[in-house]
Each structure stands twice: as structure tokens, then as C-alpha cells.
Amino acid sequence: MRSSAFESPLEFVLHSCVSTTSQEMVFRNRCADGGQILPNKLPPLSGLPPIIDERSRVLVLGSFPSVQSLEKRQYYGNRLNQFWGIMETLFGIDRDWAYARRTVALLDGGVAVWDVIAACRREGSGDDAIKDAEANPIMDMLRSHPRIQYVAFNGSTAWATARRLLPGVFQMPGAHCERMPSTSPKHARRSLEEKAASWASIRKWLRMCDNEPQVNGDGN
Length: 220
Known about the structure:
The protein has helices spanning 9-16, 67-72, 83-91, 99-108, 138-144, 156-165, 192-210, and strands at 28-30, 37-39, 45-46, 58-62, 111-115, 117-121, 131-135, 150-154, 176-180. It is of the alpha/beta class. Helix 6 (156-165) links the parallel strand 8 (150-154) and strand 9 (176-180).
């Protein structure tokens, strides 16, 4: 007769791997077939909803929000990230304004913001730690907002991930896609002024849109 309280060796193995520390960030399990210790997958993370309305003509796509951005529920919530500093340089959106005021100013200027990645697993904030990425429905967004004809990718990870998961974005008729220097604090070799000079192409595009002749309802 089996004296153990467990019905099978598998049940014993699974029971023995229960963590004694509930606050550990990474739990470890024991494989039933060989006793090998392996880390569990990190918990899934979900991104932020887009900043967009019917006036949007430029879409800025990042990779995925940092830990600070997710905690604050704000795009580019890390004060060291240069995104809002660049928006201040290009559009006069004061980086010290309340977040809600800054997002309204972006929309007033025709700029939408979202991320390529809708959900992933990641430890920390580094793009190189992103695992199991799932893409946002960028194609659907562009179809439902036909005035957006310019997509600016914030850094190489956003660009490369979209190339891999959303190749159709680069094939949409009339759409112009451009990779911008990353505003992340991990990419500080270029100054804010140097990055703003590259990002200025979105301001140029918006000004071109503003100068396009408007067509009234009867086609004249």
C-alpha cells in the first residue's frame, strides 16, 4: 500500500515545486519527466489604447510601453524618454503640461500615437527582453482613419517588429513609412536636438497636408 499522500509521482513533483515566496517575480517549476528546473513564463502584459481621432494624419508607433508608462497609463511616461521633449521642440507641446493636455495638443496637431505590440511578456523595460509579442490591429486602424498617410516608427524595434508581424502596413497604397531615431533613454548617443531634426519630417508632412487644396462636398 502506498504510504504517500500523493496519488502519483507526477503529483508529488508538482506539489514539491510550489514556491515558498509569494512575491518572487519568476517562479520555478520542476519537470515531471526529468526533474529539470525551468523558469515559468513571465505574466502577460497588455499595452495602452491609442491616442487618435478623425483629424489624425500622422501615426507614431512605438514598440511597447515601459514599466513606468504602464504604471502611469501614459505614453512615454519615463521622464528620461525624449519623446515629449521632441514634441515640445516640433509643436510647442510643453513636456511639463499635464498628460491629458499634452495628448489633446497632439490630436489638435494631427498626431496619433500607438504601439506595434498589443501584448507580450517582458522582464523590465528593455525592448530586447520582449517575448511572445502580439501585434495591434494597425491595418484596421489605418483603414478606419484614411487621413493617416504617414507612419513614423519610434526606433528599430518598432520598425523590425512591424516588418515581421505587420508586413501589410508597408504595402498600403499611398502610405509612407519611416523609421525615426529611438527616443528611449537607452539610445542616448544622439542628442535631443539631433533626434528632433530627424523627427521634423512629421512636421513637414503635416504642413504639406495643411497646404493641400480642400475639396468641397460637390466636388469643386
